## 1
Amino acid sequence: MRLVSLLPSATEIVYALGLGDDLVGVTFECDEPAHARSSKTVVVGGRDTRDLTPTEIDDYVRTQLAAGGDLYTLHADALAGLAPDLILTQDLCRVCALPSGHVDDALDHLGCRADVLSLDPHSLADVLGTFVEVAAAAGVPERGRELVAVLEGRLAAVAAAVAGRSRPRVAVVEWVDPPFTAGHWVPDLIAAAGGEAVAARPGQRSVQVSWAELVAPGPEIVLVTPCGYHLDGAARQAEAVLPYFPDAQVWAIDGDGLVVRPGPRLVDGVEAIAAILHPSAVPPARPGTIKRVR
């Protein structure tokens, strides 16, 4: 089975299922595991935004989408040369990865025969379900069930540790300029970690909001988890939210590693968030995953 992953979370799923040797193509953003990008053929490219501010990135995204442009480029010839059997893609977010329709069109044009599996979870339970889907599509269904069982066991351990404790009000800031609140599976992570997500959109898309909307519910803890950033970038952006929440704890989290990518490490995210919300009840988070800004 020759696999191609067109989104970073799918690459993580493939490796978690023990299928790394079957993976032949990835995107320029597939950085977990770190060697995936260097050892596989990159079939999707895009603009390097590392030197742009959050405002500049937001402006770029809005301008491209308003003009009907794409944020990602499919290297169709490279894809065809890999002769994939299964391609993993998504339709959940045009900002996060190439939509599956673009892939289907390219395959039709190239005359390439491959199954295309679109992964579009909206909740934490949905995310776990995608692991089973990928494993089944790759011909190893038992590996998906085994992976989910292990992850569900870890979630159950957190639930038991925080049971009966008061649930602090938690606001998650997924982007800071302009501010976006958290949607899809992120509120589920807060609930699983023993918190109450406020100003959130469970199961729905993240949307731009005002700072007043984030402040109004009176969050006790604010988590800054910007999409596309690891801990250092999140910590820099967390500084910007401090004036809006003078009475709350403010934490930065490795957004890409623990919160925004719908892959196996979301369970690491639940454990890390639980360590913030209930530090006396669960083990401390791994170094390099969270940082208290105030």
## 2
Amino acid sequence: MKSDQFRIHREAVIPQESAGQRLDQALATLFPEYSRARLQRWLKAGMLVVDDTSPKGRTPVQGGEHIVIDAELEQEGPVLAESIPLDVVAEDDDVLVLNKPAGLVVHPGAGNPDGTLQNALLHHAPSLAAIPRSGIVHRLDRDTTGLMVVAKTLTAHAALVEQLQTRSMGREYLALVNGQFTAGGTVDAPLGRHPRDRLRMAVRNDGKPAVTHYRMVERFAAHTLLRCKLESGRTHQIRVHMASIQHPIVGDPLYGGRLRLPPGGDETINQALRSFSRQALHAEALTLIHPQTGETCRWEAPMPADFAQLLEVLRGVHSS
């Protein structure tokens, strides 16, 4: 029998907007911290019940069903510990805050079986093997830099997931976008998978609610540095939202379209833009309630060198 510290008890209600979805899809949305395979195993084993029954994963939901999970956590999948350097910003017995570099994938997956943040975390703190997804409660895209929080205990994990779901965890990003803004604003547009390209997300009427607030930090001749704050945390949210209002993020390989060079032909700026081969997006600030002390904590991460250098080039020639 495993220790009680590796047991979880979770209860939730399937929201009405999930009506018509398959049960396994609705569960994956409701409990994003657990993989769909793990949820399916619990469902088959009777450790996850729906209104006191154990239906099949393909069963459609109506919305309003009561979900109870009472399960033991086993280490999921052969994710191996690897000695990969981590930029740890803060760490205690409950949480670890790190500054993720560009190029580091968060979870192993197709094309990235190892060399990920999860592999690095298991080497840094082997006890994370007993925590869902090794304590990772939210993601950053491979080439997005900045702050992430990792839960080191099941109690901390549950608390941080709840903060994400209730939007009490604050995340602020710096984004360099194409075009000029004169003021801040809000993009309120639901997001879902692109109907033809499964690697992309898109604004869809039947998507999940997504809200991004932005304000202007600095304006250049043909670009604007924005500070974006999320109300939700959908995949590629800022990238899709900025592209949807015709201001894609500089260097974005999925949503940026063709490289946009500013008028005037300044070769220093043009070369800097050509050589910046990732999205100019940085998770600058993270605010949360510490799961053990109840204190409000805030961390900030400096802009990475390549992003800062690009701004210096833009700033040195044209700024306002």
## 3
Amino acid sequence: MQISIVIPLLNEQESLIELHDWIVQVMQSNHFLYEIIFIDDGSVDGSWNTIRSLSEKNENVKGIRFLKNYGKSQALHAGFEAAEGEVVITMDADLQDNPEEIPELYNLIKQDNYHIVSGWKKKRYDSIITKNIPSKLFNWAARRTSGVKLHDFNCGLKAFNKDVVKNIEVSGEMHRYIPVLAKNAGFSNITEKVVQHQARKYGSTKFGAERFVNGFLDLITIWFVSKFGRQPMHLFGALGVIMFVVGFGFSIYLGIDKLFLNPTGRLITDRPQFYIALVAMVIGTQLFLAGFLGEIMVRSRKNDTRYTISKKINI
């Protein structure tokens, strides 16, 4: 199979038939062998019934339904596990991503040997105040922190070599940072392509302003995990040793001063250096133990089930 199209969705019943027909038209005109995997992330409208109807008419349509809403990252994880195509395309279900971009994305992966091709919605039809400006700020911070030079981390339209999606873990709210996760896993041949962005035709966006706050928090998390996720002792242990050495140094100074230099002076407990030494050694010990426990957790952790699938179609 050449292409797997992975589409996470939440309450997008109105757009699914039109999106399906558009994708099929592109696939057939380019003679691609394909599959369309819809992941229903706990929709409460008729999205699942629509997916089931589409699968009865088109055997290339597959469906995964979550028991409840678990989030886009978990939906993509399930779709990646089910995908069988040599190239995996992700796109949103709201018709804002243009399926006409798929052939060129496919060629960039197969012919130019890129690991990831990320869409760049250079011209957007979203609100300038609530989406465009926060998105530019977020993308700037993501580029500076991650070292991945993409203009649009939030774009849902992306193409992946199959090896990428089978070797990365997408969890939490990390779907924005799949290129960063891929780079950390060794898939560094990443580029971007300007894609056409379209105004939402049905319904309203499922993401509010809070996604940018969460995005920045996730950015800090992924920076820490990429630097110290495998060896947390390198951070916490080093900080703990520094703090303990500082506290121990103050203790030695206080001891020498009291015993030899100024034995008749004020009590050690009346001096601020005593409390600095005490707090520094306690914090240093705690940081060292945090690093030690982190190392134990990293070595003993198991992959937990992050979502529950209630139904499947053609999978």
## 4
Amino acid sequence: MTATVAAPAGALPGVKDEPRAAGVIGQTRAGWGLLTPFLVLYLAFLIGPAVYGLLMSFFDGSSVRPGLGPFAGLDNYTEALTSADFWSSMWHTVLFTILTTPPLVIVALLLAMLTDRIRRGRWFFRLVFFAPYVMPVTCVGLVFTWMYVPQTGLFATWLGALGLPAPAWLADPNWAMIAIALMTVWWTIGFNFVLYLAGLQDIPRELYEASAVDGAGPGAQWWRITVPLLSRTTVLVTMLQIIASLKVFDQIYLLTAGGPNYSTRPVIEYIYDVGFTDFRTGYGAAASMLYFVVILAVSAVWFAISRRRA
């Protein structure tokens, strides 16, 4: 007896599934059609300017004359790498990153853990901690400028009530970067708080209940359950925060404009100054390309860590 294999439902022997193939082709065309507007904008406003900036970095260009200017080769890169002002601004950016990243990770985690334990009114704390993040940087900078006024500002009033002298927050090189970091922590901690709160809510409650039955206290539960299961969220929050801090410009420009005596000027403001104040667009493009390599290296580290954990 010869066994027979039944043909799939709706299919005839010897006849190709042409409608299905046509449907796949139609979906592909529709997908490219939907992607086309984004690709055009992406190429026009991101890839195109980036390529032109790379080309500009090899010329001695200026914003006061048309064209790329005389060919400079690698002179702009050599000048940037040997410039004390460039490396000083690089250090200011790194210092700002060091001052802001640990509190924006640790404090956000602690606030998320405390909020996660609240059973009623959790929405209120979500609103309170996240609300500053949606405020424009100009508004936050203006408010903190008033708060940092040495004699009549809010911080000076608080310190005076405790019998402590108030420093010149934005006029003292030793305090200016700390003042900017404090404002940044208050302003942006809500984003990391929301990420951590979402990660905590994904942890099964049964794990805590089972560990409590086994005699584990809150400290052991936090160290053996919460921290390991939040490791991917911690890596994400840390790397996003480092990249965001390395791109700092707005709050420093609004509060101190890089002062006093350039003690808080970050790399992006340095690029802005040489490109738009000194009108050296070629040199500014070279400095921006060097800093792009730094940001790209940090992003590559994040990608490698995320891929390894996945």
